[in-house]
What does this fold into?
Amino acid sequence: DAKTTQPPSMDCAEGRAANLPCNHSTISGNEYVYWYRQIHSQGPQYIIHGLKNNETNEMASLIITEDRKSSTLILPHATLRDTAVYYCIVRVAGGATNKLIFGTGTLLAVQP
Amino acid sequence: NAGVMQNPRHLVRRRGQEARLRCSPMKGHSHVYWYRQLPEEGLKFMVYLQKENIIDESGMPKERFSAEFPKEGPSILRIQQVVRGDSAAYFCASSPTDAGNYEQYFGPGTRLTVT
It folds into this structure.
């Protein structure tokens, strides 16, 4: 699976959009970009995933660049409860193994 | 629809004892994954199972650790002769069988403390 690079930490004001970047310059054509988050001491939570088109769901939007070498997770109106470590993961969907390889992620701190 | 359930949530064992961690996947899910998170470290994959089969155990320590997912009942992660270094949070995740739908849904974790 491809390696991802994320900033170690970011701050965001409550009510503002949080934009979390991820670089995955070695991504392969059949690899998806997944985002999970882990709120302190809880199990990771799936947020969103995409292949090459931008995706949106009730939690967030995922913007993938045209060359697929980077992506941005957008939380449109961050709340204090969005404070968490956010993980960007690339993996082949439906491959022989479905394991997730977590990096160090980005600690997003939403400030009141 | 109940989420992934893990029990116990907290487990204390003395060195040398056995630890058994249980995971009940979401209804309709037949794929189970175990991850370990050591204190102040990231999540590490341990093992991936389908019903009655181990698919990928590349992250499992070679000794003392085993996992199963029987035809009936929860998945079990078993740690024999625990040592202090086994103290960690152990998370289970499950995914559905539908082709193309591979999100993993995580349970709340079991926090193992070895004294």
